[in-house]
Design brief:
This protein has 7 helices and 4 strands; from the N terminus they run H-E-H-H-H-E-E-H-H-H-E. It is an alpha+beta fold. The protein is elongated and about 65 Å long. Strands 3-2-1-4 form a 4-stranded mixed sheet. It has helices at residues 2-30, 47-68, 80-89, 97-123, 145-154, 159-175, 179-203; strands spanning 33-37, 126-131, 140-144, 216-217. It has one domain (2-213). The protein is 64% helix and 8% strand.
Amino acid sequence: MIPFLGGIVGLYVFPRLIAPLYLKYERAVIGEARTVHSPPEHDPTALRVYAVRVWLVALFVVGVLSVVINYVDPHLFMTQEEYDMFVADVGDPRFAPPVSITLAGLLMPLALGLWGTAWAIQDAGLYLYVRVAPGQGEGGLLQPVWMRFADFLRGYSGVSSLLFVTSVFALFMATGESIESALFTLLIPMFAVVQCLPAYMVYTRLGRDFLLRGAEPLQQ
């Protein structure tokens, strides 16, 4: 239940806490900039948008998992008998399915909350309007606020996530006795995608007006 309920809470709480602070940070970094908003060009409920977003969440979960799993005691998630079995079969019980799948579920609210912050900013259609310096032209530049925040998260959602899954899969397959564990490892991203669905459905029904306070409509 933690991935489902925690994901909903994360998608509701994180954007309301982090997004306003991030907007202030971006304005402070850029300097003289105004926050403006325009209707988004995408539909958050579209299947393509949903598919891309939940896949990025799944990769983020695996990316963070690849770091966290090195500092967690496997005994927290398995019996001593299971622990001894994985030590005998594989030699490293950290990557056993009871550990990896449980940790992935616990990381889901964090992943959804952080990515939900980027989505909320994007879906609110927020931009920073930066005036061009004198002598460099007229008007100004529009910078999507969510882009740099999303780029930071993608750093944990890249190739390293897939490398972690394939390396653990290879570890299990090498023993010849842990094929089920190997298959479970490959399914971790799929589990994450499925766990995203209820929370994302709730997210699409949440308002984002709280992000528009102080933002001016973009003049076309």
